[in-house]
Amino acid sequence: MKASVKAISYYLPEKIYSNEDFFTEFPEALANKDNLLKIGVKKRHIIHPDELASDIAVKAAEKLFAEHKIKPEEIDFLLFCAQEFDYYTPSSACVIQERLHLPTTCGALDYNLGCSGFVYGLSLAKGLIESSGLKNILLLTSSTLTKKFHLKDRSARFVFGDGAAATLISAGENKGIGEFIFGTDGTGKNKIIVKDGGARNPLTVSSAKENTDEFGNTSDDASFFMNGTGVFTFGLKTVPKIINDLLIKENKTIEEIDLFIFHQANLFLIDNIRKKLELPEQKVFNYMENTGNTVSSSIPIALHEALKCGRAKKGDTVLLAGFGVGLSWAATTVTL
Amino acid sequence: MEINEFIKNLEAEIEELPPGTLKPDTDYRKVAEWSSMHALIVIAFVDMNFNVTLNGADLRKAITVSDLYNIVQEKLKNV
User: Fold this and answer.
1) Three-state SS at A316
2) Does A227 participate in catalysis according to the annotation?
3) How far apart are CA A59 and CA A57, in angstroms?
4) Could you give the ipTM of this predicted complex?
5) What's the angle, vertex CA B72, arms to CA B68 and CA B76, rounded to 5?
6) What is the pLDDT of residues A232-285, one digit of tens each?
7) Which of A46, A213, B20, B64 is the most exposed place for a label (fewest CB within 10 A)?
């Protein structure tokens, strides 16, 4: 049996933070407005402090079940990709199993990845279907990263938004999910990090000490930190290479790929990657204007929107590439 | 690419920067509300036009536009 992506739904938290809100809060950024707009975000959805990654993942899954008439008892395995978990132990996936009324015969596990997480999830789902004979895998990706932002971190607050996506991967006769390219470089762990508050560095008084970088972004060790220029350089160098490696592995040319969807990190970066690969604009689909960078959910949200507006249709082969925190990256193709 | 052309092309990439703003001895961080977005524009400009990668340390080292140009030229020699 082969694995393929059958259905995607997503959920965004209610609260919206618009560019108007941003420029009211940071009037000094107005001088740089036209450059900032190149990032491609107009509004983002922000999670309520009392709501967890698992809560919005459950909402995304409930939408998936309702919109595609899927019964919970049909799910054989649940994969939950997030960076925020309900408890130290047990796994949030076990908590979600109960909340979604998934059968007790269902396997469930958490994994912690960011922007590469959706593509990794597809590889795990494909493996479970093709090696263990499972039929329906529910992949939930969820990000609540804005909770970890320092209030004065202008860059992060402009770029990111919260959200969750639910994807059903099912067994069938047709080849759906193709080959994979993976990559990891732990030497880049400090490029995107929340340094304190985990097991390695417990929170101390110094965790709240503010650091302001050369661009005027303020953070502290208890908050999210991203070395924007470092990550941008990583994206420019790594992504074109993995796309070319994947095309070689798939024995395909760019012409044989109907659509490219990159992790929606920043449209300025994606457009530069597009130019490096010499891809025509109409072959790249982006969707981050209304969401911001939603981390592991950015690819499924964009794929859902591409299908909705007809940019992707049944039978198309779409190349997906995720890259970010870890550093971690992965690419694959899906034939819809 | 000569430095004058380098400057002209770089200016074209940055919004809200009237042509002629940058000179070889301009401290480019002082011409605009220098932000991480400007740094990304510079990195992308150099990558696209010269196929060399500037990192954060390169950018911190370069004070003027001509410093930036010279770093790129130096990197081109090592390609």
Assistant:
1) coil
2) no
3) 5
4) 0.87
5) 170
6) 999 999 999 999 999 999 999 999 999 999 999 999 999 999 999 999 999 999
7) B20
